[in-house]
């Protein structure tokens, strides 16, 4: 008995030792595994970010002269009509593009999921704009959208519509930028939705069909709910892509014009900093944007229980 | 527990020391940044511009690039402090962050090209070196006041202009012929300009092209229309804004009307390339500058085109604007003294070489008016003004010119916003003028810096 | 009925069903073809127009009536495009390889190792997801300059490696792997490094190849940062090259479109050669 007892105790001791040993080992390993990326993110993302936030409390002239002004830049923001109009443009852009990408991506996924001839080719065709650089995209669309002589105006001429200026009319430009954004992003989201669709067991549809459910009912009560994790992913990533990618497109295609119609907030920041030399003010707007975007990320983080997109 | 806390400590310590390291390095770096360049005078001085060394092998740029390379070579042969030309792509593109980023990070070039529109930002930022101490009085007097004036603050000279570029109305003679119009129909006043423009507008041809892209250049093209009505953005004498006055509204209206009536396009035909647009029949009249003469010669040598002074409003006077880039020196560069000597010796000395160089630039590498009297004489001797278009610029247009004004960014932007809103978004000129006036009054009340000219 | 015959019969059935043209299928086919054509039209238009001579480039015919290669030879004779492409290729490839390596290491630790502060670290990384370049361009420039990386390949490569997105996606993938994977190796006393190398990395192949393509494309297409931190024309990348080319030849669409086609070609080739992998790996990699 005693022998046995001590033996179990001994085993237990060994086990605890092994656990703590393995935990220590894990921690040490984790440290080295995380080191390169943490260091890189710290130096090239966190430090610049903190510098930007700090800069927001100064009046900076772009030549190394700075003066502490507390919340002066933030107060100025409240009274700056262009800041507000840029905020409006940004929200409008987000509110149109994110759902549009969602609907178009899902719609295309439903289409290319069908067993029809040449579907592989069609799928590739729908995806291909995604691989083209924005500089090239801007040039090609500029060429096609040229006033009077561009191919799109030439086409519209056939229907008696003429004189549209897609890049010069404030009423059309944001819409044009939206269409181009959806055009080059939709393929990526189509593939993601396709992956989600293919994970839905076919038996569910068969059962529903036997029960006499219509195509719409099957979509509404099987597809949509089971796509929830995918949908979440798409909403998050497309928001990121829209907020950051929107800048590049506006930057190369419209320069925020005409008359501020495509002046996204992130473009306004860039203008303040690089065109007007208002680095402090730009940093303040940037900080605000950083805070809002981080809050959005954290909200998503909570909603998805730590970045998991599964249902449970 | 022990193991855990050790691991945690090492993790935190690692993170902290990394943070400390990077922040420390950063602080050290920015502390050094202030003085580092001047201590390294061995390094060649960086000369940022958009001409040389050109990445292209043909076209007008090659000649201009060669001119820059020769000017730099000539200095480098005689001096130990070398100068290195750095070609900055898309330098003039307002979307280019290059120059602003460099200055913000205390890493600006030693010598660079600057337009009057950007002058005050750099001057008020204490970035420019006074070149006057390096110049002889003869040489200072050799520059035309219209060209040098906007680069002067008090007696200080903060940039040497390399060219004078007046704006005019350039018209396509083929388009006029096709529409049954003759030289006599070339507009003299605003009404005629819009009427003739209307006649010349077709499904593929814009009757009159006015600049549409927001930026310093658009404002530059806008000011002469304002001056013609005897208005101004800011009165140079009183330094008060003048935007509530009629001339500003009228000039805004001109831009608005030309689009509303379908005469002017909302985007530039042929992406802004005037000779190509004329050749393809995409534009009939275009407000543009003297530099187009060289472009026509290069791209469409056989295309007939005409030059006329900008039409004036009723009761107005003929005015145009004189643009042109200037060489400036970064006060906090590696070796500002050598940089100043380089600029003055190359562009602003009374030496034969310097006079000839400016002349060669304005007549040869480009087609411009000379900022210097002596170089202009040399150009005249070489027959620069015998060609009919150059002659019109020289005799009819140049005398009505005023140097491109220098405004701080807020003033530029206020005008630009009003102009864009009226021109492209169809806003009312009166209300935009009011808004602009109020914005400028508030801004100028607290403005500290060099006078607005 | 055995399993194999059942699947065989099913396959036969679907194959037969594939070949049948029902009205519904015909409609879907037409819709698909139309949408596909509409989508590729801008690119098609770019390519065909790049073979048109200058006086034809603005007409509305899809195909050039006098196809010419002159635009391409002009572009290559004017601009050292080959050099720009080599730069872009080297830089994008280096970033891709290093980023994949570092991100998978970090993601492995965050997904499969237990240590205190793990969730906090992940949360911090996650929160930088949306911080985008323009907002922090000037501070980033200062950092890059302080580290002495201006005007160097290192400066073009190192700062571009680090982004939270790759870590985030890889972590998702590693979490989804079954827990038993490492157990056998652990019992054998293998180090975490060995487990990572010989168990985790081989399993990551599909997601890594998908991410590799995306990273490569994103960095091939990068524009603002390379423009901001390079003065030396020998370091120019393709995007700067064509942007500058456009500035100089703004109206010569025949040249600009030829240059654009050249710049887009490598990415198109990658797509055509690897599209199966791209599509399959997006699907298999748990991008959801």
From TrEMBL, chain A:
The species this protein was found in: Psychromicrobium lacuslunae
Record's protein name: Sugar ABC transporter permease
PANTHER family: ABC TRANSPORTER PERMEASE PROTEIN, INNER MEMBRANE ABC TRANSPORTER PERMEASE PROTEIN YCJO
Any Pfam family matching the protein: BPD_transp_1
GO biological process: transmembrane transport
Subcellular location: Cell membrane
InterPro entries: ABC_transporter_permease, MetI-like, MetI-like_sf
Topology in the lipid bilayer: Multi-pass membrane protein
Residues covered by the ABC transmembrane type-1 domain: 87-300
TrEMBL record, chain C:
Keyword Transport annotated: yes
GO cellular component entries: plasma membrane
Bilayer topology annotation: Multi-pass membrane protein
GO biological process: transmembrane transport
Keywords: Cell membrane, Membrane, Transmembrane, Transmembrane helix, Transport
Localization (cell): Cell membrane
InterPro entries on file: MetI-like, MetI-like_sf
Residue span, ABC transmembrane type-1 domain: 85-274
Domain of life: Bacteria
Transmembrane segments: 26-47, 84-109, 121-144, 150-170, 207-229, 253-274
PROSITE patterns in alphabetical order: ABC_TM1
Pfam family, one: BPD_transp_1
Family designation: Belongs to the binding-protein-dependent transport system permease family.
Protein name: Sugar ABC transporter permease
